[in-house]
Amino acid sequence: METLIQSLVSGVLTGSLYAMIGVGLTVVFGVMRIINMAHGDLVMLGMYGAFWAHVGARVDPFLSIVVWMPLMFLFGMAIHRFLLRKVVLGGELNTLLYTAGLSLFIANLALFVWTGDYRTIKLSYAVMPLRPFDIAVPIPLAISFGLAIVITVALYWLLARTDMGRAIRATSQDAEAAALMGVNVERTATITFGLGTALAGGAGVLLAPSLYLYPTVGEILVAKCFVIVVLGGLGSVPGAIAGGILLGIIESLGAVYVSVAYKDLIGFVIFLLVLLLRPAGLFGVGKS
Questions:
Q1: Which uninterrupted H or E stretch holds 21?
Q2: pTM of the prediction?
Q3: Residue 264 · residue 213 · CB < 8 Å
Q4: Count of helix runs (H) and strand runs (E) in the chain
Q5: Closest CA to 216 of 104, 101, 114, 107
Q6: pLDDT band (50, 70, 90) for residue 264
Q7: For residues 215 and 111, is the Cβ–Cβ distance under 8 A?
Q8: What is the mean pLDDT of the chain?
Q9: In this predicted model, what pLDDT tens digit does every residue of 149-184 receive, in sequence order?
Q10: Do residues 194 and 74 touch, judged by C-beta distance below 8 A?
């Protein structure tokens, strides 16, 4: 029983970070119908941002999130404004292929600049875990979990309580009707892509102290991201949160009761089963 509880706690903590990655992709798809294949590479940039802030400026990686999320927001807006705006008009297949190319470009540029060496962030307070109720909780993962909750609550407030959030939700439901009601759809799309990129960068900062860093880490992250959004239902923010936590729990239980080597495989098997049996996702609305 103690092992099961430990696995569930670890799964929820890791799954909260997966959820942040999935929410970023879901928000962008919900408004713009862009399946962003470069999303994992944007997470990777956030990870490297935290790493270099820690190594170069001795800034705690978690504190660097207040710098990297705004910078990633501006970077995402620039990507949409100068690279994606006209491509979106060509349809979803065009954006899928374009962002796949963008993913290759970002990963190979990172490989050229930072080499393919594996790196880690070593924190003095990460040596001994917290032990509430005799359950081991790594301190960096606990901090990441707390910050992920804060960011998710802030996102909910933005979407539910602000004019921009209402514009985003209106555009996601019916862009043409939103435009007729006075919403600047083009501006909303640019801000939404910036928001999705900021969430990806923020997730990268929170993941950096717990994972190895290397330029192609985005490949496995975007794969997990698609598992998350399929589990939760593509376009559903609550579904993405639930899907991320569910994936974290599945991987954690798989690592303990099956094998660490197969924990990613178990997640992908669940992904295929959901696609086969319930294409709308476990939390989506549709025919199963």
A1: helix 2-32
A2: 0.92
A3: no
A4: 11, 0
A5: 107
A6: confident
A7: yes
A8: 89
A9: 999 999 999 999 999 999 999 998 888 899 998 999
A10: yes
Question: HEC states along 186-217?
Answer: HHHHHHHHHHHHHHHHHHHHHHHHHCCECCCH
Q: At what angle do helices 2-32 and 39-57 cross, to 10 degrees?
A: 110
The closest of 118, 119, 120, 124 to 139, measured between CA atoms, is 124
Of the pLDDT bands very low, low, confident and very high (cuts 50, 70, 90), residue 231 is: confident
Please name every residue paired with 130 in a beta bridge, in sequence order, or none if there are none. 137
User: What tokens appear for 97 in the block?
Assistant: 């292929």
> Which CATH number belongs to the domain containing residue 131 in this structure?
1.10.3470
Q: Helix, strand, coil shares of the chain as percentages rounded to 5?
A: 75, 0, 20
92 falls within a domain: yes
Q: How many domains does the chain have?
A: 1
Residue 232 resides in a domain: yes
Q: Is residue 284 part of a domain?
A: no
| Degrees, nearest 5: CA angle 58-61-62 | 130
User: With 70 as the cut, is the pLDDT of residue 63 above it?
Assistant: yes
Q: Is residue 283 part of a domain?
A: no
Residues 6+ apart with CB under 8 A from 231: 239, 242, 243, 246, 247, 270, 271, 274, 281, 282, 283
Statement: residue 285 has pLDDT above 60:
no
More confident residue, 200 or 266: 200
The residues, any chain, with a CB within 8 Å of residue 161's CB and separated by 6 or more, are none
- Phi then psi for residue 54, to 5 deg, are -75, -45
Surface-to-core class of residue 261, CB atoms within 10 Å of its CB (0-12 exposed, 13-18 middle, 19+ buried): exposed
Across 123-127, 206-210, 248-252, least confident range: 123-127
